[in-house]
Amino acid sequence: MESLNFLLQGFGTALDPMNLAFAAIGVLLGTAVGVLPGIGPALTVALLLPITFKLDPGGSLIMFAGIYYGGMYGGSTTAILLNTPGESASVVTALEGNQMARRGRGGPALATAALGSFVATLIATMGLAFFAPMLVKVAIQFGPWDYFGLMLIAFVTVSATFGSSPLRGLTSLALGLWLGLIGIDQLTGQARLAFGVPNLLDGVEVTTLAVGLFALGEALHVASRHLFNDEKPMAIRGSIWMSREDWKRSWKPWLRGTAVGFPIGALPAGGAEIPTFLSYTMERKLAQKPEEFGQGAIEGVAGPEAANNASAAGTLVPLLTLGLPTSATAAVMLAGFQQYNLQPGPLLFVQHPALVWGLVASLFIANVMLLILNLPLVGLWVRLLKIPLPWLYAGILVFACMGTIAANPSVVELVMLVAFGILGFVMRRYDYPIAPVVVGLILGPMADSALRRSLQMSLGDPMILLQHPGSATMIAIAVLALVAPFLFKSLARFRQDED
Amino acid sequence: MTTSTARGLHRPTLAIGIALFAMAFITWRDASAMQIRATYGMGADAASYFVALFLAVMGAGHLIAAFRWQDDPGPTDWTAVGWVALGLGSLIAAIWLGAGFIAGSTLLFVFTARAFGRRAWAADLALGLILASGIFLLFNKLLTLSLPMGPVERLF
């Protein structure tokens, strides 16, 4: 009940006209970037970081959260009408959603996606408000060894679950950890991998890396491909309202999708891809008309879209309570907190309760705003898809470079941005996942210092990690999660050989 | 499936593997040159050694994978990539030479639009100039962020 009180106070903060305006700007921007192909919520928040530096922290964070939620809503519109998912979490939505649009049922597809997102986000945000204080009570007793264990889990799940193969995912993570080494070590003052370049002593900026990998990398990649694929957005045909049958077939997938999405998002299990795929498979098995799958089954849009949004809200649980980002957007939002000298984690709930609960309350408000923006006004957003690609990407690049120059006006920073852009291009081209690089850069130094602080407390005895039940369990889980995919793979191959 | 397995080494994977080994070597060298030691437990070099080892293992994995992976990234329009690169290069050059944010961003806009197939140079130049000037005015005057100044910016 304590958290209900805090939440009510939070609504007091969130309903402040200034904060409402920030939430509105956030959801508008978020929906726009979600709809536009090529820019996702992670990139938008990264672009806004330098610009919001001088604004009020509470308002800016509310805006970032609005962008995060809005991006998830908007992504489904692109997936359904254009068949080019704006972000990886919408890949599954495109499977059935685009088929529905091709068959003249784009309206109901958009409607079930928006309503499913609303239901899922509502339930998941309630889950966040309910579970976060409980987790904070546990987390406040965590020692550095427990944090080290948690980060190990995050490393493994983020890199082994994203992308097409564990080798590629782990290589991305290694790159991120390597970038995290660069700069002056916080504990000893030792410079690592700086090669005498003064700009490198401060380390690699998360925003420079994220903008380079996401914006420049994506623009280069799309430029290299666009000659060969020419997708035109489809007009919304048919009523945007769902029929009685659509409702009947949608509400259960919404709830099941939420049930799958929220826990997976809340555990440091990385990414919204897994819950969306799980939900899709589940709906396919449970469907009364399984033959419709692949040809525009509404369950295949309703379930994954709910799972997607529920896991996005779930990601905020480890981010706020433990300071542990498990997706690229969460990683960039963590950088957003840090630019105001706020460290997410159990102490944030104690030291800045008004800010945290205002943020949670504003998530509810953003969700309602998004439902209005995405149901009656969906036609407006579709027009964004008509911006000519050359101008769209030219504009994205100008904004991306502007953000970096504004944050750090130096040629070296700009050269690094372009280098990261080329890295992002190569990684996309050869199918390496991007998110583990960003997570590695942020969590790498944190894991390093957590481990070293543990070892200082134990006077150098590494057994301290295994003597505490919490960290021992978490390290065991991380090792299992790392080894399991390889085991399953060789098991599968073994069985194949037998046949 | 059977036709592609006979092609031998997958060159990009091999190249990435070698690059990973090179990074591992640099990291190892950097770590072994560190002077500051920790009193208890691990020093700053331990993480470097770990990452170097991690990179080397990934490099070895790529060398093995180079014999197995066959996926082809598909057709690539290198001219378009070149235009975007030229745009980014122009921006860096403009900032380096002190030509300012507006000139650099306008060139970036024009060249990127060209990469995506636009050929209306004059229209794109005008649009890029308006966009860059708008951004400059908005952020320099309204939000007091300091974007690099050149001859054009000093006119405002």
Automatic annotation (TrEMBL), chain A:
Highest taxon listed in the record's lineage: Bacteria
Membrane spanning residue stretches: 20-49, 61-82, 109-132, 144-163, 169-187, 316-335, 355-375, 387-405, 411-427, 434-451, 471-488
Domain DUF112 residues, every copy: 20-438
Pfam families, A to Z: TctA
Keywords, sorted A to Z: Membrane, Transmembrane, Transmembrane helix
Protein name in UniProt: Tripartite tricarboxylate transporter TctA family protein
Organism: Paracoccus haematequi
UniProtKB/TrEMBL annotation, chain B:
Residue ranges of the TM segments: 12-28, 49-69, 81-109, 121-139
Highest taxon in the source lineage: Bacteria
InterPro entries: DUF1468 (IPR009936)
Keywords from the named record: Membrane, Transmembrane, Transmembrane helix
Domain (DUF1468): residue spans on this chain: 16-148
Signal peptide annotation: none
Name the UniProt record assigns to this protein: Tripartite tricarboxylate transporter TctB family protein
Organism: Paracoccus haematequi
